[in-house]
């Protein structure tokens, strides 16, 4: 029996959505895109639990790139780093200028410097030089304020350390690819659900 979708290959898989046999290639390429698969489809659940080798290699590569940024941090500092990373991964660029790794580094640096200055008893708000970095800095400031509201100065010190790690990782990515957003894309792949 020939697959009714492509008309080329042998139909070997029972498709619960179509109620007929289709080929494995059509099942794999048209799943969810053209075929409305039910959530209990065995082929769909298998594909979700066992992603292709290319996806697995990308996930391993991403984790290997992110782990050095977390090395040596306390558990609280690592959690703060991941919170800042999640905020950066969700940050939407404006229509005129996209957020770059340089902007991320500037925003994290400004917030870390502001916290470090406050720890010395001086109230001074450091500002990044670019508009996209300023927008991200505003979001980071709001998150820092929310997180440190009840934790006090120990939490502010940990937040400054985590922000310095974000800054270092973003600036390292910016050196590798100037004008790019490699670090933000890494955070999106690792921290945002598909």
Please tell me about this protein's structure.
It is a single chain. The chain has 8 helices and 2 strands, in the order E-E-H-H-H-H-H-H-H-H. The protein has helices at residues 24-30, 42-49, 53-70, 75-90, 101-119, 131-148, 153-176, 182-191, and strands spanning 13-15, 20-22. A hairpin with a 4-residue loop joins strand 1 and strand 2. The radius of gyration is 23 Å and the shape is elongated. The two termini are 36 Å apart.
Which band does the percent of strand residues land in? Answer: under 5%
Q: What's the number of extended β-strand segments?
A: 2
Main pleated-sheet profile: 2 strands, antiparallel
**Global morphology:** elongated
With strands numbered from the N-terminus, the spatial order across the biggest sheet is 1-2
Tally of contiguous helical segments: 8
> Could you give the order of the helices and strands?
EEHHHHHHHH
Span of the ends, CA to CA: 36 Å
Q: Which percent range fits the helix content?
A: 55-70%
SS-derived structural category: mainly alpha
The overall pLDDT average reads: 91
How much is the radius of gyration in Å?
23 Å
Low-confidence stretches: none
Structural key phrases:
62% helix; 3% strand; elongated; 194 residues; mainly alpha; 8 helices
């Amino acid at each position: 029996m020939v697959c009714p979708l492509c008309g080329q290959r042998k139909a070997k898989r029972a498709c619960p959505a179509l109620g007929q046999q289709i080929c494995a290639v059509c099942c794999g390429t048209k799943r969810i895109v053209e075929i409305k698969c039910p959530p209990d489809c065995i082929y769909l659940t298998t594909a979700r639990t066992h992603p292709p080798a290319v996806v697995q290699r990308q996930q391993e590569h991403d984790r290997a790139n992110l782990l050095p940024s977390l090395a040596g941090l306390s558990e609280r500092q690592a959690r703060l780093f991941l919170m800042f990373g999640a905020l950066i991964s969700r940050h939407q660029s404006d229509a005129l200028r996209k957020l770059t790794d340089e902007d991320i580094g500037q925003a994290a640096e400004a917030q870390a410097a502001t916290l470090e200055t406050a720890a010395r008893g001086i109230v001074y708000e450091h500002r990044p030089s670019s508009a996209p970095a300023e927008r991200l800095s505003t979001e980071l400031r709001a998150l820092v304020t929310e997180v440190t509201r009840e934790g006090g100065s120990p939490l502010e010190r940990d937040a400054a350390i985590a922000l310095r790690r974000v800054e270092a990782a973003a600036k390292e990515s910016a050196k590798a690819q100037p004008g790019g957003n490699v670090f933000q894309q890494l955070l999106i792949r690792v921290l945002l659900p598909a």
